[in-house]
């Protein structure tokens, strides 16, 4: 049962709980108006210590569409953090006011620490290069809505697989579904960490630098940005930043029913000409993010059934 639980890593929920959540999100998509007052009377805090467009706005629109109310900050320096207040004290205080706290933080482990010091559930909206569980729920809902059951496909994850928290969370959860094969496409310097690959049998994954060499085998291509903010050296970032640019020439090599996903924001890694291709689903994916967050908030607050 999700009611009252924090979500720090995607594995905090069982597969059954995730599938139930995705089904509920599907119901909300089909008849959103039926759920418009579900969280009336609830007050939810969004604490963003790091910039965000999709996560912050999709959560806030999810709350408002459910009839709830939002407090919070998009810049911690407008709060008493600027006076040196600790994360623990901030969380202990905000949990006196809100029924649920959604937070993004640049430090890995900060949401976990917050959950140990909060009297209300915490949702991790992304912690450093570690995890981004609600993006993963977004990705799973997108796959389910557009490709059917989550099984029996080959997914290519492309770009910054070293620091890319979205690819880490997604790989970890997809490992639990049947018959999924992975192609990890990255420069040598940005390879997926060993601990993420743990548990994938050798015949279920391959690693390559070349997108062109494997795109025709993919059912899903999950593009990611080379993240400037995670590099210690500007020179290294400049060398790697344009490692991949998906354009229509490369798309011609892909299957007709392959979908292109991206957690966004994008920089150069997908040419804007690809946006017009029906296989480009990243803006639909951003919308599914709002619906899955509606389902998640409702369930944690005990408003969406067990
Ligand atoms: N996908 C994602 O997390 O986007 P934002 O950084 O804009 O929230």
Description:
With 306 residues, this protein is α/β, with parallel strands linked by helices. It folds into 2 domains: 10-130 and 288-300, Aspartate/ornithine carbamoyltransferase (Rossmann fold, 3-Layer(aba) Sandwich); 134-286, Aspartate/ornithine carbamoyltransferase (Rossmann fold). Helix content is 34%, strand content 15%. The protein has 10 helices and 9 strands. The strands form 2 sheets. The chain has a 5-stranded parallel β-sheet, covered by helices on one side. It has a 4-stranded parallel β-sheet with strand order 2-1-3-4, sandwiched between helices. Helix 4 (110-116) links the parallel strand 3 (100-105) and strand 4. The chain is globular and about 55 Å long. The model has no long low-confidence stretch (mean pLDDT 94). Phosphoric acid mono(formamide)ester (CP) is lined by residues 52-55, 126, 135, 263-265.
Could you report the average pLDDT, rounded to the nearest whole number?
94
Question: What is bound: which ligands?
Answer: phosphoric acid mono(formamide)ester
- Main CATH class of the largest domain: Alpha Beta
Number of domains: 2
Gyration radius (Cα, Å) is 19 Å
Uncertain regions: pLDDT < 50 for 5+ in a row? none
The run of helices and strands is HEHEHEHEHEHEHEEHHEH
In the CATH hierarchy, what is the architecture of the largest domain at level 2? 3-Layer(aba) Sandwich
The percent range for helix content is 25-40%
Question: Any idea of the CATH topology of the largest domain?
Answer: Rossmann fold
Largest sheet: number of strands, sense, barrel closure:
5 strands, parallel
What would you give as the CATH superfamily of the largest domain? Aspartate/ornithine carbamoyltransferase
Number of strands: 9
Strand content: 15-25%
Q: In order across it, which strands form the biggest sheet?
A: 7-6-5-8-9
């Amino acid at each position: 049962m999700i009611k009252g639980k924090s979500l720090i890593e995607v594995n905090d929920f069982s597969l059954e709980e995730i599938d139930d959540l995705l089904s509920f999100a599907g119901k909300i998509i089909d008849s959103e108006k039926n759920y418009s007052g579900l969280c009336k009377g609830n007050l939810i805090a969004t604490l963003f210590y790091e910039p965000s467009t999709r996560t912050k706005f999709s959560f806030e629109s999810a709350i408002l569409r459910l009839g709830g109310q939002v407090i919070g900050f998009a810049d911690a320096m407008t709060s008493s953090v600027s006076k040196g207040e600790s994360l623990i004290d901030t969380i202990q205080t905000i949990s006196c006011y809100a029924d649920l706290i959604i937070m993004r933080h640049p430090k890995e482990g900060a949401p976990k620490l917050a959950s140990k010091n909060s009297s209300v559930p915490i949702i991790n909206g992304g912690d450093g290069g570690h995890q981004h569980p609600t993006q993963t729920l977004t990705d799973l809902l997108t796959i389910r809505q557009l490709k059917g059951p989550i099984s029996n496909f080959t997914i290519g994850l492309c770009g910054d697989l070293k620091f890319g928290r979205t690819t880490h969370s997604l790989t970890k959860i997809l490992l639990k579904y049947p018959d999924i094969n992975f192609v990890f496409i990255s420069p040598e310097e940005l390879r997926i960490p060993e601990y993420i690959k743990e548990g994938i049998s050798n015949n279920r994954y391959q690693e390559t630098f070349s997108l062109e060499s494997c795109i025709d085998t993919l059912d899903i291509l999950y593009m990611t940005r080379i993240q400037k903010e995670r590099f210690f050296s500007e020179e290294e970032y400049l060398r790697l930043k344009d490692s991949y640019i998906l354009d229509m020439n490369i798309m011609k090599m892909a299957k007709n029913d392959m979908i292109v996903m991206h957690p966004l924001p994008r920089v150069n890694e997908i040419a804007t000409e690809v946006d017009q291709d029906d296989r480009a689903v990243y803006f639909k994916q951003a919308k599914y993010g709002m619906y899955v967050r509606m389902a998640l908030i409702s369930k944690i607050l005990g408003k969406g059934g067990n």
